[in-house]
Amino acid sequence: MRLYSLSVLYKGDPKVHLLKAAYDVSTFNFFQRSSVQEFMTFTSQLIVERSELGSRASVKEQEYLCHVYVRNDGLAGVVIADNEYPQRVCFTLLDKVLDEFSRQVSKIDWPSGSPVTISYAALDGYLSKYQVWPPRV
Question: Which residues form the Longin domain (predicted)?
Fold first, then answer.
């Protein structure tokens, strides 16, 4: 069971943009890593764009399952995992990350933020902590 990507996005009007993301592409060939990461970023944005506010969904894309949660305030999270990773755990992780992100990053920064300007460092930690289920304590 693997997690490949954990992203926080903002579903604004007219478009969705990435606020912060963490990736684990270590299982891919060195020469494929950048294109796999681009694919995950693009897929995350596309799924959030097509999701309604206040919705949760799991979407199969190639051999991955993309779990998306779009809150009513437009803040969204996407976890890209393999097919074996428990869906319930993914949505629990998304709840936790989005709640923490909204407490640490001002709502004013969401519409104009980018991975460079947003200061939120917890995604890499969550991605590695939840990498193998059950998590290591």
Answer: 8-127
